[in-house]
Amino acid sequence: MKNVTGRTSNPFGLRPPFDRTPDGERTAVFGYGDANADFHVVGDHPGVHGGKRTGVPFTETESDRGVQDVFRETGFVTGPEDEPDLENLYLNYLHMCCLPNGHEPTQQGYDDLERYFDAELRAINAHVLLPVGETATDHVIREYTTQRRRLNLEMADLHARQIRGRGFMVVPIRDPTAWEDGDRERIGSSLTEILASDYRQTKGVATLVG
């Protein structure tokens, strides 16, 4: 894929393999942000984490703007909420295709889109992956670390934890709809700690440790 770094939305020109939306509705919510980012936030699908109106992941709902706000506070995000400016940050979904309201992706749908997600993730080539919610966290830990069997998929425990992966550091984020007192501060503190470290060494270290 060609890295079209001048484009903020869908910089690699992905085309969804299927369209299951009514006529006139948005087909997909594509990846958005800095195509050379070190930090890559991974959500589930537009019906859960927003963007069917704006075309931008993690917009439209108060809970998912909570994720955006954490990255604003740590210096990654500026500009309007529905069309933010991202620096060193990329956002996308496991299942980029939109579905009619009330419909959830099938396992076949996730499977059909997995190769597109994986190709985009490797094209971004970030150092830190930040999956949001249980579905994205399960996929990222299973596919990009060797630690899935060692970890209980309890998001309250995994939230903001720094996990070494195969060429990545993985930092899960609990779904904002389930945040409790302190969860917002925990992910902010983890991001601040990573930014203060030599996190670009993650790839070499993670390959050995993960």
TrEMBL record:
Keyword Iron-sulfur on entry: yes
Stretches assigned to the Uracil-DNA glycosylase-like domain: 30-148
Composition-biased stretches (Polar residues): 1-11
Any single GO BP term: DNA repair
A GO molecular-function descriptor: 4 iron, 4 sulfur cluster binding
Keyword Metal-binding: yes
InterPro entries recorded: UDG_Type-4/5, Uracil-DNA_glycosylase-like, Uracil-DNA_glycosylase-like_sf
Superkingdom, taxonomy of origin: Archaea
Matches recorded under Pfam families: UDG
Keywords: 4Fe-4S, DNA damage, DNA repair, Hydrolase, Iron, Iron-sulfur, Metal-binding
Region named Disordered: 1-23, 44-63
PANTHER family: TYPE-4 URACIL-DNA GLYCOSYLASE (PTHR33693:SF1), TYPE-5 URACIL-DNA GLYCOSYLASE (PTHR33693)
Protein name: Uracil-DNA glycosylase
Organism this protein belongs to: Natronobacterium gregoryi (strain ATCC 43098 / DSM 3393 / CCM 3738 / CIP 104747 / IAM 13177 / JCM 8860 / NBRC 102187 / NCIMB 2189 / SP2)
Taxonomic lineage: Archaea, Methanobacteriati, Methanobacteriota, Stenosarchaea group, Halobacteria
